[in-house]
Amino acid sequence: MVIARGAPAPGPLQRRPAPAPDFRTLLGEVGWAGLAPAIRARFAATSALGDFSGTAELNASAAGRGLAQLMRLFGGPLPWITGRGRARVRIQKGPRGALWDRAYQTGRGGWIHVRSLKRAAAGRLYECAGPIWMRLKLEARGRALVFLSDGFFLALGPLRLRLPDVLTPGALTVIHTDEGEGRFAFILTCDHPVFGRLFDQTIRLADAPLQGAGHA
User: Fold this and answer.
1) CA–CA gap between residue 59 and residue 41 (Å, rounded)
2) 77 near 126, Cβ under 8 Å?
3) What is the chain's alpha carbon radius of gyration, rounded to the nearest angstrom?
4) Contact 60, 82 (CB under 8 A)
5) Which residues on adjacent β-strands are paired with residue 3?
6) Is 73 helix (H, G, I), strand (E, B) or coil?
7) What average pLDDT is seen over the chain?
8) Nearest residue to 12 via CA among 94, 132, 102, 115
9) How far is CA 197 from the centre of its chain?
10) Residue 167: burial class (beta carbons within 10 Å; 0-12, 13-18, 19+)
11) Of the four listed, 18, 93, 149, 160, which is most buried by Cβ atoms within 10 Å?
C-alpha cells in the first residue's frame, strides 16, 4: 500500500462551487488538438455541463454486479443492473468539481442512479465516490478522448492510500467518441486482474439537452 499526499479529500460544502475540470489543460495542447472538433467543444471548460438523454447497453459479470452492489455504500459509482434501455446523464457544478449523475432504466424496473465526482487535484484528474478515488490519465486516440484508470486510492484527509489492484475494479477504460450529427458515445470496459472482464458498457447520447423532462 502506497501513501501519498495530495489535495484534501471532499469535505464540508464550500460556499462557491469549484469549476469543472479543465480537460484542455489536463490533456495538453497536442492531445487537445488531436481530438475531433465536436469533442473539444463538448469538453471545453464552459460546455461540459448539462442534461443529455439516449440509450444504454450494460453488461456485467457476476463479480462485476457484486462489486457494483458493494460500491453503493460509497454513493453507487457503478451500475448494478444489466441489459438494454434508456440513459440520462446530468453534469453539473458541485462543491469540489463536476458532479456526474447517470440514470439508467432497463427492462420493467425503475431508474437507478450512478453518481460520482470528477475533480482536478495537483494537476491530475480524479473520479471520486466518497473516500474512494480513481486517478485517471487522458489520451487522444484517433480523434477520440480516452480515460484510463491509473490507480485507486482511499482518501483520508490529505493522505492517499493506494489500494492493491486486486481490491479494485481493475483496469478501467472509457472511450468518448463522436458519432456526428450531435451524437456521441461513451464506451467503458473494466478488467480485473483475477476475475477478468467485469463491465462492458456502451452509452449513446445526444448533445441536445432534455426537453421538458425531469431527471429521474
Assistant:
1) 30
2) no
3) 17
4) yes
5) 161
6) helix
7) 86
8) 94
9) 18
10) exposed
11) 160
| pLDDT for the residue 113 | 94
Largest CA distance in the chain: 48
Cell of 33: 488538438
Nearest CA to 5 out of 171, 127, 128, 153 is that of: 153
What confidence score (pLDDT) does residue 50 get?
82
User: With left for phi above 0 and alpha for psi between -120 and 50, is residue 23 left, alpha or beta?
Assistant: alpha
d(CA 50, CA 135): 24
- Tell me if 187 sits within 8 A of 202, measured CB to CB: yes
Q: Give, for 32, the enclosing helix (H) or strand (E).
A: helix 29-33
23-70 confidence digits (pLDDT tens): 999 999 999 999 999 999 988 865 557 889 999 999 999 999 999 999
